[in-house]
Write a structure and sequence with these properties.
The complex is a heterodimer of chains A (85) and B (200).
Chain A lengths: L1 H17 L3 H6 L11 H11 L3 H9 L2 H16 L6
Helix pairs in contact in A: 1-5, 3-4
Chain B lengths: L9 H33 L18 H7 L9 H33 L4 H13 L2 H14 L6 H21 L2 H11 L11 H6 L1
Helix pairs in contact in B: 3-6, 3-7, 4-6
The chains are: A mainly alpha (85), B mainly alpha (200).
Chain lengths: 85, 200
């Protein structure tokens, strides 16, 4: 039971950290020289600060091949029913 | 019978002390950010980035300026406060209404693989909001809602509803039990719980 719980927590934490915007934006702002950007902040920067939504969306979508398998794995774990969000 | 309590073993006392110490560390870890928020708010402007643990000249001037809208970019503070309250209230009402009705329907209709429906709804919940900000902006822009609080309400409800459905689905058996009894059916509900009685 604990193994399933730990797996769900790890998966959720990984998924949310992958898409975390606030921490990076407010702590480092992606700087210096754009070295600490993550995909979420880079996508928003490209779309809204540089005015190029295509580039922003492409940066963000590049995370999906990693994100979607994690989400599917999470769904399967949740379907087991002994762990609830 | 003796009233004298048996001495607590040394290892147990050591474990208890460790647990208390760990609890204190977690408590400080949790409270420090809140303390920092208050510290920043009550410090003089030039002291904000200092390493003071206690403000040398605590003041509530910043609160007074905010509440009296005493600075040019704060002149709409109360309107913005109203926006926050309105958006929060609308999102809560809509999410609760949609979430409870959907989970009730899924529970009552006993859709095969209904769990898949409720879990699939979570897909939108686990995809980070920052990833969907750009498409949401585009959608709201094309609907002409980009400068309207309802665009924020729509997005927030979209994100909050799947979780509400998921949580409400766990209470669906109680809905079933109470509705069966209300219709006068002779069939006994499958499961009676204290919550079912309260629902009735």
């Amino acid at each position: 039971m604990l193994a399933n719980l730990y797996t769900v927590c790890t998966l959720l934490s990984t998924i949310w950290t992958l898409g975390d915007f606030n921490t990076v934006h407010f702590v480092s702002g992606g700087g210096p020289a754009l070295q600490t950007h993550v995909l979420a902040t880079l996508g928003i920067r490209d779309a809204f600060e540089l005015g190029d939504p295509r580039m922003g969306m492409a940066a963000v979508i590049s995370a999906l091949p990693l994100l979607i398998p994690l989400v599917i794995l999470l769904m399967r774990r949740l379907a087991k029913g002994d762990v609830h969000l | 019978m003796s009233d004298i309590a048996a001495p607590v073993p040394f290892r147990q006392r050591l474990g208890d002390a460790g647990a208390v110490l760990l609890g204190l560390v977690i408590l400080v870890w949790t409270l420090v950010p809140i303390y920092e928020m208050i510290l920043v708010a009550v410090q003089e402007k030039e002291d904000v980035f200092s390493s003071n643990v206690w403000p040398p000249h605590p003041t509530i001037d910043s609160f007074l300026v905010v509440f009296h809208q005493g600075y040019w970019y704060l002149e709409n503070f109360w309107a913005q406060m109203g926006n926050s309250v309105f958006i929060g209230a609308m999102v809560t009402v809509l999410t609760l209404a949609i979430g409870t009705m959907t989970s009730f329907a899924i529970g009552r209709l006993r859709i095969p693989m209904g769990w898949l429906l409720t879990n699939a709804a979570l897909l939108t919940y686990v995809i980070p909001m920052s990833f969907l900000a750009i498409p949401f902006y585009r959608i709201m822009k094309s609907y002409g809602l980009a400068d309207n609080p309802w665009s924020v309400i729509a997005v927030e409800v979209t994100f909050a509803t799947p979780y509400a459905i998921f949580i409400s689905s766990n209470t669906a058996p109680r809905f079933r039990a109470s509705s069966t009894r209300r219709r006068g059916s002779t069939a006994r509900p499958r499961r009676r719980s204290s919550s079912a009685s309260i629902c009735r």
